[in-house]
Amino acid sequence: MTWPRVDGMRGLELGSPGELRARLNGLVLAGQKRATAGILTEYEVEQEELEHVGERLALLDDDGNRIGTVEVTGLSIHPFIEVPWEFAAAEGEGDADLDEWRAGHRGFWATAGSPVEDDTPIVCIRFTLVDVVEPGD
Predict the structure, then answer these.
(1) pLDDT by residue (tens digit) across 16-31?
(2) Mean pLDDT over all residues of the chain?
(3) What's the rounded Cα separation, in Å, for the pair 45 and 19?
(4) Is 87:50 a contact under the CB 8 Å cutoff?
């Protein structure tokens, strides 16, 4: 399974479809969310290359429509337990500290069928919002 391609770019589907994705997309569009995390093994399973600095990604809604474009500004890989606070805070999801960030991400990934351990490699992607696609554009 490969990631969706939209307008010549790889798609960025944040969270799970529904309320969570709508909330996370809203944070990106508001300029508050400037980072996202993924599990390294998911790239291997889905035969996807890591993002690279300068790559543009299509921010997608539940229907696979591009609602914006982000540009990757940084990428690093850390064991789950060593993801730095500066990165977690840049995710812009309102976590008060690393413990809250870890608990939320452990819960999300466990529910998604990909539980993480302290040593699970996490891909930490930083990005900036490049444009917003208005409905009907």
Answers:
(1) 999 999 999 999 999 9
(2) 94
(3) 26
(4) no
Residue with tokens 């229907």: 63
* Residue 137 identity (one-letter amino acid): D
* 2 token code pair: 């490969």
Q: In whole angstroms, what is the distance from residue 79 CA to residue 85 CA?
A: 13
Q: What is the pTM of this model?
A: 0.92
In the numeric block, the tokens 């452990």 are attached to: 106
3-state secondary structure of 80: helix
Closest CA to 54 of 39, 72, 27: 72
Contacts with 38 (C-beta within 8 Å, 6 or more apart), sequence order: 122, 123, 125
Question: E-assigned strands of 30-110?
Answer: 35-39, 56-60, 66-79
Q: Are strands 35-39 and 56-60 parallel, antiparallel or unpaired?
A: unpaired
Q: Which residue has the tokens 């789950």?
A: 80
Residue-wise pLDDT tens digits, 95-108: 999 999 999 999 99
